[in-house]
Amino acid sequence: AGHRPAPTALPQGTRRQAATAGARPSRTISDAMKLCDLMRLFAAPRPICEPGRVADADDLAVLHAHAFRHGWPSSEMEALISDPTVTTIVAREGRTPFTRRPIGFVMARAAADEAEILTVAVSPARRGRGVGRLMMDETIRHLYFMRVASLFLEVDENNGPAVALYRRLGFREVGRRANYYAGGTANALVMRADLK
What we know:
The protein is α+β, with helices and mostly antiparallel strands.
């Protein structure tokens, strides 16, 4: 085997520079926390759900008109929100309580130990982001504490995302209404979830 020359010793200062060359500056926990705070500051606020108010009537009428061919007017929204048998859950989005605006809502009417979903509407710009699930979870929770045992709803059988959501929430098909939607060309599925 050939003889290898001994490595040339580097001066101490040069060794220190070589050891740190290319090394990234370490980030402290404090730096990471500051970064998280900045990300939260600029991130889109998460929607919150809370009971509807009469003052929401105009906004809910607009949302409903975007969701359905035959929208409900503000006066009807006011009457439903004021009805003690109707639960109205509104999803709001905004950075402060003063800037939060409705982006969706659910209305359900209870009678004895049963309830029915009257309507579910989500802003077109917010669909597919879990807002419907968030509102339905809150509605079901509210009805459960009202001692509602069974919850019913009707949904267009062609509305795949809605049907899939309701199945994930525990609803099952218990009936069908022929030619119920879209001028008599679409069937409605009648679905039921047992809350007790």
